[in-house]
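Lab channel / #folding
Pinned by the channel admin:
"Please post every new chain as: sequence first, then the structure tokens as a reply. Keep commentary short and put observations after the output so the thread stays searchable."

First post following the new format, from NK:
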Amino acid sequence: MLKSSFSVFILLILFSMPLFSQNSLQGIWEGGITVPGGELKIIFKIDKTSEGYSGTLDIPQQGAIGLNLDPVSQTGDSVSLTFKAGQITGIFSGSFDSEKKISGSYSQGGPTTPFSVERTSLTTTTSKPENETDLIISNGEIQIGGTLTLPTGNIKAPLMIMSSGSGAQNRDSEVFGFKIFSDMAQRMAEEGIPSFRYDDRGVGKSTGNFGNTTLEDLASDMEAIMSYFQNNAENKLQRFALLGHSQGGVVAGKVAAENVAVDQLILMGSTAPPLSEILRYQVEFAYAASPVEKSLVEKEIDAREDLMKAIAFKKDIEAAKVGYNQAYSELLNALPDAQKNSIPDIDAMVNNQTEQLAQIYSSPQVRSLLFYVPTDDLEKINIPTLVLFGGKDTQVTITQNQSRTRKALEISGTEFEIKIFDDANHLFQKANTGLANEYPQLDKKFVNGFLDYIIGWMTTN
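Reply from TO:
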């Protein structure tokens, strides 16, 4: 799923306390870190293994679920948990207040802020439906952790392989408690459709670093999953339907255009233009209510694109940084006095923004997607294709994506269908505004008729 920012927390947590008795990290720890405007909830799920500890991190308000903690170590009551993704590093330092509570301070290269967690459960395990089997699939040195969900009766359609949107997602594609792929998998199984969903690299049981994963790598993972099911005696399946949500649709489209084993393609809120155009639209949308004159806003956005191009094509990067620095500085200095005076140091803010953008655009995954044109792949599709849009989707809008997708599929000559769910947002929930800030308040279920439509299409195509 597309997001307004590609940055993710990397936490290095160091706990220390006098050595009385050793407290255990086993279990689920929930707490909050103070951030501007409120509190950010953080959840650690830590298990004791024969080799020590392993664990994951959830940041629900940011849609980050199942991010790997590696390594997790404990010496006496001093504890270290490390999470790495991208190039940002955060540090938590604290101590056990009791065997059930840890408190301290968190920093991310700047001022510290209070943090505390309490153990809410001694176990991290939950019961799994009987029709689900967890698998580990190898793609070279990378291990892909996922879940196969099978119907209890006859299989009536190809195996649906689900590819999640932008950002490091777990196999359920969980966003603010809405388990998109998990809910879909069980409903599909009820209607005779098997499915496989999997953790992104560096999430859950999948190894690797998601931030360093290119589009080619993402496609390679999906190809490896298909190969596994084609050749595994116990779970042998030969026909495949690829479902991609948001950025996952770019991956699914690429694989479908290149692999003859794919029988069906489902694009769920998937993008047609390159990522650079999507980002431009999102920034324009964010600036829509800005009091600054339009020419300065356009100058800042153009400078962003110049920085993208310089980094993507590795040419004149420093000059592009200078250009963006100047454009953003002019914009901030043109703010009304009340807003401008609320910024402690404009030069520092400008420099920080420039470096953050350069860091985001320099990540291997973002760089591989910035100017990649998804419709080039759709023009090569020769299998039945279902395209789904949310009428209230503000991230992948109908205006920006529908006509381009239609044109590409018409060029391909394949059989396709485009379906719009008028009240749906980017997650295909029933929405009010469609804005991402209302996701946490919405019902954790799909808009009426959404899954039934996919089932009907899959079983008749």
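NK: Confidence is low (pLDDT under 50) at residues 1-21.
TO: also worth noting, The radius of gyration is 23 Å.
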